[in-house]
Amino acid sequence: MIFRSEPEHANRQAGEWLARLHADDRVPEDDAAFRAWLDADPSHQDAFERATMVWDAVPGLSATDFAPPPPAQLSRRLVLAGGGAVVLAGGLTLGWRQAYAGVYSTGIGEQRRLVLEDGSRVMLDTDTRIRFFVRNAVRTLALGSGRIDLDIAADPRPFVIDMGARRATARAGRLDLRREGDAVAVTAIQGNARVDTAGAAVSLAPGNRIAMAAGRADRIDQPELDDLIAWQSGRLAFRDETLANAAAEMNRYSTHALVIADPRAAALRLSGVYRVGDSEAFARSLALLLPVRVASDGQSIRISSADR
């Protein structure tokens, strides 16, 4: 299933199944499980039909035809729970490309995998810029903006991650790093790292994350790591997140912007794992799962509360 939240009503389950059936990694076992879900309760087929009716009814967005798995005679359309593959400029680099000292970047919707000259591996998320160089027996990666997954090769030379006013240092291990202006987040996935904060150095243990920004106290927590790294497979995981924050995250992967029209819609909350890169599909899922209206003018997608 796509969603990882607590068990939900049939309408939400229908949206999950529609996403699963349209996923690019769909397998025959999914079709069999879908039929079993349909047979488990008469309300499930009704929910599936209602979901597809909502899909057809959302104004301003084009629908996508699909062939449902036989023998079920179900809907003509598909609701994606934030579905659609990530839109990759030039395509996702499936293998690892050898990289040498220099500057590397990705555009909006692009991801890239590199092997640095010291053997470290780095995956760049959408709209990300880095520079790697070795000087005076120190390996340095400067994260100018965006997000990376960094697997540091074991080496006697220290590895320094420069993030503007903040730095992290390690000799080996795996880190998730994100920078937006002066806001920085560092998560130790494997191994330890030392992070230079505004006050003092902090030793970051595996599973811990530190979030830092000017004018705000540093925060240390323990995120769900599977959710944290979901972006590497073209997905974003939300757990009881506001629609405003979820839309902002989705917008990082597409130039077809989601615009939250009013505070009531912005404050709505959702949970689930959504494919990135298809703003229209994400908006359609919202029309099914939340009390919102969705409309598109071709340049952006406006989402407003249903009672406006």
Reported for the largest beta sheet, the result is:
14 strands, mixed
Number of separate strands: 19
Query: What structural class results from the helix and strand content?
Result: alpha+beta
Strand coverage percent: 35-45%
Into which percent range does the helicity of residues fall? 10-25%
Oligomer: single chain
**Mean model confidence by pLDDT:** 80
Shape: elongated
The helix-strand sequence is: HHHEEEEEEEEEEEEEEHEHEHEHEE
Radius of gyration: 21 Å
Number of helices: 7
Alpha-carbon distance between the two ends? 33 Å
Please mark out the parts with pLDDT under 50 across 5 or more consecutive residues, or reply none. Answer: 1-8, 55-60, 62-94
Describe the 3D structure:
- By secondary structure, the protein is an alpha+beta fold.
- Helices cover 23% and strands 36% of the residues.
- Strands 1, 2, 3, 4, 5, 6, 7, 8, 9, 10, 11, 12, 13 and 14 form a 14-stranded mixed beta sheet that branches. Strands 16-19-18 form a three-stranded mixed beta sheet.
- The N terminus is likely disordered.
From the structure above, extract its key features:
308 residues; alpha+beta; disordered N terminus; 3-stranded mixed beta sheet; 23% helix
SSE diagram, text form:
Layout: H1 10-22, H2 28-40, H3 42-57, E1 97-98, E2 102-105, E3 112-115, E4 121-124, E5 129-135, E6 138-152, E7 159-163, E8 166-170, E9 173-180, E10 183-190, E11 193-196, E12 201-204, E13 209-213, E14 216-221, H4 225-228, E15 235-242, H5 243-251, E16 257-260, H6 263-267, E17 269-275, H7 279-289, E18 292-296, E19 300-305
Parallel strand pairs: 1-3, 6-7, 16-19
Antiparallel strand pairs: 2-5, 3-4, 4-6, 5-6, 6-9, 7-8, 8-11, 9-10, 10-13, 11-12, 13-14, 15-17, 18-19
